[in-house]
Amino acid sequence: MKGRKPETRLVEAGRRKEWTQGLVNPAVWRASTILFDSVAEMEAANPPREGVLHYGRNGTPTIWALCEALTQMEPGAAMTRLYPSGSGAVAGALLSVIEAGDELLMVDSVYGPTRSLCDSVLKRLGVRTVYYDPLIGADIAALFGEKTRAVFMESPGTHSFEVQDVPAICAAAKARGLVTLLDNTWATPLFFQAMAAGVDLSILACTKYIGGHADLMLGSVTAVEAVGERLERTRRVLGQTAGPDEAWLALRGLRTLDVRLKRHQENGVKVARWLQGQPQVARVLHPALPDCPGHDVWQRDFTGATGLFSFVLDGGDAGARARLIDALELFGIGYSWGGYESLAVPADPVRTATRTQYGGPMIRLHIGLEHPDDLIADLKAGLARL
Ligand SMILES: Cc1ncc(COP(=O)(O)O)c(C=O)c1O
């Protein structure tokens, strides 16, 4: 795998013959009980480890193939573990590195349920969360205190798409021996290499672009060597695992990630640029466009943009926003994103550490694989109704 280009790795990774049995793809290996020939063989399977059948919760070749493929997509990574959803992966990663009495630095533009995890369960367990400005960069060092244990990033931010200076934050954290975590769901390892930027634990909601067809729930955490064992120990005692059907679907999605993401990017940029020119639109928040906070960092660090971004209406209220979204014919109204289809939802960023003023209601679009001219015509008709 070393030296091969990411597109090639997407095709080759995780396809060990002992797991595929000569088929192109591994089968769906379903198991709870694994039968051993003797007590000695059973004992030899302990402790549970990747590649050795032990018990269903500790994986089968379908799971190992996906884990190995995701690890090989992240140069510098040592291992990957799966979780029943992206939110499960966020929880699994955080619980493996944080303890009672610790302080966690959390980006203020984080995905809502991650914020809720910090403000409920982690708080109850004695972890204090300090929210920070997504554009803080190296200045994050000023927030490091005696009790700070970890820094969590999500780049770009949920709804508002601020691109974080991940390398600068990781360098500052590393100098203090802190653990760094990144929700890399938007870019995927194809467009942002988390470990190369200094991240210790990289989280993906595989529910989105890895699956790519809006028909599975799955999360993954990819780890560097230093935190891998803690991640696995925590996963095991929390009983976190993923079903083989989900792993199989995600592995299938992974193989076509490159072509899908490039089309999402092309369509997304075309629609975003068109929106920029519309009188009813005040602002377009798309990392590949200069108006997006952190656009320069995106240009420096990312190799692409995906199909998810927001735009802000020039005035109006939530009622007008709902009328516009309801009028769209090609955009579904629903949670999640990363499938082949376009979606539009109201977006209301929550902030507790920073202030944001957009001057109008915000809409988040996921641009799918439809022809962008059709999507633009649909949006044009919708905007005309305002
Ligand atoms: C950035 C981000 N992270 C994590 C998640 C959670 O993933 P899941 O829905 O699989 O729990 C989402 C879901 O929308 C998300 O947008």
Please describe the topology of this protein.
Elements: H1 6-12, H2 17-20, H3 39-44, H4 61-72, E1 79-83, H5 86-97, E2 103-107, H6 112-124, E3 128-132, E4 148-154, H7 166-175, E5 179-183, H8 188-191, E6 201-205, E7 219-223, H9 225-238, H10 244-255, H11 257-276, E8 281-285, H12 295-301, E9 308-313, H13 318-327, E10 343-347, E11 362-366, H14 372-384
Parallel strand pairs: 2-3, 2-4, 4-5, 5-6
Antiparallel strand pairs: 1-7, 6-7, 8-9, 9-11, 10-11
The protein binds pyridoxal-5'-phosphate.
What can you tell me about this protein's structure?
It is a single chain. The protein has 386 residues and is α/β, with parallel strands linked by helices. 37% of the residues lie in helices and 15% in strands. It has helices at residues 6-12, 17-20, 39-44, 61-72, 86-97, 112-124, 166-175, 188-191, 225-238, 244-255, 257-276, 295-301, 318-327, 372-384; strands spanning 79-83, 103-107, 128-132, 148-154, 179-183, 201-205, 219-223, 281-285, 308-313, 343-347, 362-366. The strands form 2 sheets. The protein has a 7-stranded mixed beta sheet with strand order 1-7-6-5-4-2-3, with helices on both faces. A 4-stranded antiparallel beta sheet has the order 8-9-11-10, covered by helices on one side. Helix 8 links the parallel strand 5 (179-183) and strand 6 (201-205). The longest helix has 20 residues, at 257-276. It starts with 5 loop residues before the first helix and ends with a helix. Pyridoxal-5'-phosphate (PLP) is lined by residues 85-87, 111, 154, 158, 183, 185, 205, 207, 217, 219, 336.
